[in-house]
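Data card: per-record layout.
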Amino acid sequence: MEPFENYVSQLQKASRTGYLIAGFIHQRLTIEEEEELDGWIELDESNMNLFVELTDARRVEEFLTWYAGVDLEARLAETKKRIGFGRKAKVVRIWRYAAAVVVLLLVGVGIYFRSSSPGRVNRIAENPINDLQPGSPQAVLKLEDGRSVLLANINDTVINEHVGIRDGVVVYVSGDGIPVMHELVIPRKGFYRLVLPDGTHVWLNSESGIRYPSVFSGTERRVTVTGETYFEVAKDMARPFIVTVDQVEITALGTAFNINAYPGEPDLRTTLVEGSIKISGADVKVLKPGQQLRIKGEEWSLIKKSPVGSITGWVRNEFKFKNTPIREVMRMLERWYDAEVRYDTKIDYHFNGSIDRNLPLSRVLELLEKTGHIHFKTEGKIITVKN
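The structure for this 387-residue chain is written out next.
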């Protein structure tokens, strides 16, 4: 019985993985399921490679075209007859669904090995570089007296009576006092965490910043941000938390949300993870968990179901792509590796997958190349995108 039980266990695992990947493609995973899929992807590099292949838009379309012309019931009946599969109808139905998932995974494996055959040229290996290393925790804290304090490789220290560093995080002392304005600025190749005087946690990505008072007083808690920030807002029903970015105000009481407002991006994106927020500007919108609002000039577009796990992946120090355009991916790499990207061809390709942000640049480009749709030439800090 042991071999059979092990076989059933493997089928169940394959079925679960197939379900998660299918849910990812159809954008119907819950946050918990996204985290489960992330765990499977990060378990092994081959899992990530397989995931990239199975979620490639062109390959999915090719598979569906093939699948539409296959009499699956006839194929399964022939297979069961050949191996003498004589279980009861209920078990046969379970086998049919599990087998369908396994077929999908095996097709993906076959695609992967074909695209990774020895004949394929590795362009990165042809162009050795003085490899660019990933970003690290670093920031500049600008104080009210005009001083700028460089924060890098500091775990624990006291800066003044208002603020200190604890376990590599900027932490404020809550209490009374006269508010003075502070600013935390993140350079390229940097990220940092901050705990505001009210207990709100803030993550800041590369080339981002936040301006805030050393003490929150009055009837509201107001901060101003640039770039990309993620908030876990401390609850205070008497004082709403307000984030100003460009010409927009985002109001929350106790919630978690992500703001992407880089100047080089096509729009401002606010994504709600939990709780509720109100966004005010040229229009007014109230977001529910999982929704994203995109603002481009006077145009406001509400995405009712957004890939939250992918959007907030940077908080966990991951690149997470969900149908992400190549140019958006390369802008992420520019900020994280302090690189410059050039294009010698017009290309419109979208990526799916997850990559550790701790990897050197050459390794990240190598993983992107494994899709078979894109290649790179690197010279110093310049990355050239090629077909």
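Known properties of this structure: Residues 224 and 244 are 5 Å apart (CA to CA). The radius of gyration is 25 Å.

See the next section for split statistics.
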